[in-house]
Amino acid sequence: MENILYQKVSIINGIGPKYEKYLNNIGIRTVRDLFYYTPYDYEDRRNPVLLRDTKINEKNLIKIKIYKEPKLIKTRGKLTILITEGYDESGKIEIKWFNQSYIKNKISVNKTYYLYGKIIEEKGRYSITNPEFSLNLGDRMGIIYPKYSLTKGLTNNFMLKIIKRLFKDYYKNLEEIIPKEVSNIYNLASRKEAIKNIHYPNDFKKLKKAIEYVEIEKLVLMQIAFEKRKQIIRDNISTRINVDSNMNKIVNKLPFKLTLDQKKVLDEIFHDMKKEKPMNRLLQGDVGSGKTIVAFLTLINICLKGYQGALMVPTEVLAKQHFDKFNEIFGYLNLGVEVLYSSLKSDKKREVLDKIKNGKTSIVIGTHSLIQESVEYSNLAYIITDEQHRFGVAQRSSLMNKGKYPHNLVMSATPIPRTLAMIIYNDLDISTIKTSPPGRKDIKTYTINQNNKAKLYEFLKKRISMGEQAYIVSPIIEDSEKLEDIKSAQKIFKNFINAGFKKDDVCLLHGKIHSEEAEKIIKKFSEGRCKILISTTVIEVGVDIKNATMMIIVNAERFGLAQLHQLRGRVGRGEKQSYCFLVSDTDNEKSKKRLDILVNTVDGFKISKEDLKLRGPGEFLGTKQSGIPEEFISFDMKTIKISKEIKEIIIKNKNKYNLYDKIYKEVVQIYKDRINIS
After folding, report:
1. pLDDT, tens digit, for every residue of 108-118?
2. Which of 31, 332, 460, 621 is most buried, by the most CB atoms less than 10 A from its CB?
3. Is 430 left (phi over 0), alpha (psi -120 to 50) or beta?
């Protein structure tokens, strides 16, 4: 019989098809999902305070006796205002409700109510607007009140109501999955205790322990899922691929020498491919460290051995650039190489798809188009995912399913400290390129504020007059009322034109520009016909212009440190000295410290370590990095380490605890749609 926790949430009384759909929209599909739906905030409504003791401009719980008959005022704009007044032993307060005329029949003079809301004080008079109210302490007053993230159609009151029913009918079905003996080692709450205190905390210490348990349990289950995934991959039989005898000649013919790190990583990849177990490896390397050439060489080896290889990248610009770069360096080999992306003209796309299907194409470089149903491979034996954090686990799995247990390499230019990487990428072996190719000068980096913007402008004009080129990056495309303090890419572009720059010398590039037009702009900039490229972060990856020596990032405090480092990596690609200017007028000390990290080093691994110290793993990893499991987004390093230790204890002693089957069933239920582990 199926565990009740994994039955649809609609089995709970009061959740019909309409509300089931609303709950599905916020990720609640099963009974278990609802138990684990943690509130995003809690309000302390336990103890009412006197008016004189309230925290002004903050929410307070007060106990007030109404002494003035509620009066309903209707305005011309159909707005209604219900006004009354009340008092306690320390003072009086005016109470208003907007567009809630029904409350008039619920409030009576000479009765005492508990009110919860923001208290305002002006000239010694207290007021409160749209407070929640109750005659008694109970469901909403006198408690630590949970607040849930909602969507259209849901209210917090509805969530409280169905969670009350959830506990009444199904709390008894919750069983422990972390052995008590193990929980005791780390002084963890029990599962049942934690889930209860998540929704019904009676003090903040217990709430903290409850959140700690839920975070650790999530991480333990996720790591067991990745362990299982790793085991499944290794149990599959892949194609043994030896190193072709021509590879040494090809490497020796390169117009540059490989670094020791590049050679080491190549050896690791080739060693893995010789096995009948599929390779599953992460290649980490700083911006400009030479990961791409390693990827190209491994693809060439696959091709020479008679198999197909695919390189998936996040943008069309990057796909085309990799395609052009491959042909520039290795065109003399006359290998069957094609590029595939969504905006490719239909005739050309059909031709490419036919070549992939019949095996005439040995290497295909493309975007997520590579995983479309229409793409059939002849004998795909190797896949590479570049900028892997831009792709979800499901997308990478879709590409793997196109072949028969192909070897798999994922690449990342966002260095993560090894301790953290070994936990996050638990199902991958890790290779690292730390040294950059010789001959490149370090990029000089400076912070710029209002006081020295004029000097920066003069410096920019001087470098442009010397024949060099520059990027100017903004966090937004167009001006926004909500973001008045941010200069948009469009506004910066207009300012440069108004300042006398020729239209041909200044280009504007952003995500709303059609790919064909974007390609023309990139080509114009790469050929030197455009001097200044004003852009959003679409140039974060895949633009490699050796003559571009200046990167100016506007409102730099709005970007993550890893993203700033990526953007900086667009310059410094040639022999000329390059510069990066972080323009920011922020007064926030934390933001200033983060920008100073970038000023003081160009080493991506050092930057990631410092960023981790400042922000913790949650912020450091960032919610937008979809390749990183969401479970890691909110946790601190201590929690992550404890979860790893617990996972290892459980796996090592799975026969002793007799809980592993139960845990594994839970893992399958949670991750079956995200990771192929069933």
Report:
1. 999 999 999 99
2. 621
3. beta
Instruction: State both tokens at 466.
Output: 């010397």
How far is it, in rounded angstroms, from Cα 476 to Cα 558? 10
For residue 444, give every residue at least 6 positions away whose Cβ sits within 8 Å of its Cβ, in sequence order, or none: 577, 578, 579, 580
Rg (CA), the chain: 30
DSSP string, 262-273: HHHHHHHHHHHH
> Cα 197 vs. chain centroid, distance in angstroms?
28
As a whole number of angstroms, the distance between CA 426 and CA 432 comes to 15
Q: d(Cα 73, Cα 362) in Å, to the nearest integer? A: 76
DSSP E strand stretches across 439-546: 444-448, 469-473, 506-509, 532-535
What interhelical angle do 604-621 and 637-652 show, nearest 10? 80
In the three-class reduction of DSSP (H, G, I as helix; E, B as strand; rest coil), residue 432 is classed as strand
Q: How many residues does the chain have?
A: 678
Tokens matching residue 506:
């200044």
Q: Is the sign of the CA dihedral 560, 565, 567, 568 positive or negative?
A: positive
- Who's near 286: CB < 8 A, 6+ residues apart? 413, 415, 433, 434, 436, 569, 603, 604, 605
Q: What is the DSSP letter of 431?
A: E
- Given a cut of 60, whether residue 322 has pLDDT beyond it is yes
Q: 366-382, pLDDT tens digit by residue?
A: 988 888 888 899 999 99
DSSP assignment string, 79-132: -EEEEEEEEETTEEEEEEEES-GGGGGT--TT-EEEEEEEEEEETTEEEEES-E
pLDDT number for residue 621: 40
Strand-pair partners of 304: none
Look at residue 442 and tell me whether its pLDDT is greater than 90: no
Burial of 255 (0-12, 13-18, 19+ CB in 10 A): exposed
Contact 506, 534 (CB under 8 A): yes
